[in-house]
Amino acid sequence: MEQLQAVQQVDRYVHERRSTDQRFVGWGIYFFLLSWVTLGIYGVVLFYRRLNRADLFRGRRVHYYNAVIEASKQYAEEHGQYEASHDELDDLQRFVKGRFEDEHKPIKAGLSVFLSFITLGVYGCIAIYRLMRFWWQIQLTEQDFDDKLSVAWTKLGIVRYPLTFEPVQALNRSFGMHFLLSFVTLGIYGIVWDYRLHTDPEKLYPEVHSTEDAVLNALRVADPVLPH
To answer: How far is 135 from 133, CA to CA, in rounded Å?
Structure first.
């Protein structure tokens, strides 16, 4: 029963992506229509939503990772194999805790928008830097998590072949280069930059979702009494 509940928690956070992994209105409609019609107000709203989208994604990942680790521990205990994977799963839990405390701190969308206003946009640059860095770094965390989980799961017999996740390399961009190009082109390159900020997360969602589905299916198959 505990194993069933643990896997249901994984399932819950996988399906939570319907509300957290958001796709926004098309960039062209936003940039060429909505921003002009609302006299720039929609641009501010979308700035907030882009930052908040990262925070929502971050929160879901923390819960998902911890749920996967707990389900793995429950499987090990119920199959008498806890000693075989104890160290790996504990290390994985420490890894997740460390990454989210050090590398993936919340951007705090509301506060970031407020600070951007009172600093006349200066803090907005910091928020954008953190946003760009987040979407790249979270992929590296996902890759490391899957590699470490594969080691534990192989010992437990949950999988025969390692889980794989390939980061979307297009998201590994330099904030400084984008800022410089926007400056020297008098803002023209900033339009390209804005388009990428708008669409980058949607490039990684399919990869993340595919890996989540593989993890959830592996947990279900490992114990045939669990519902599919």
So the answer is: 6
What pLDDT does residue 224 have?
53
Q: 44 exposed, middle or buried (CB, 10 Å; 0-12, 13-18, 19+)?
A: middle
- Given a cut of 70, the residues of the chain with pLDDT beneath it are 1, 223-228
Contacts for 21-25: CB closer than 8 Å, 24+ residues apart = 21/56, 21/57, 21/60, 21/201, 21/205, 21/208, 21/209, 22/49, 22/53, 22/56, 23/202, 23/205, 24/49, 24/50, 24/53, 24/198
Query: Which parts of 16-121 fold into alpha helices (H)?
Result: 17-20, 27-29, 35-37, 41-78, 82-102, 109-118
Q: What is the value of pTM for the model shown?
A: 0.94
Residue 171 carries which DSSP code?
G
pLDDT at 60: 98
Find where tokens 């794989």 sit. 164
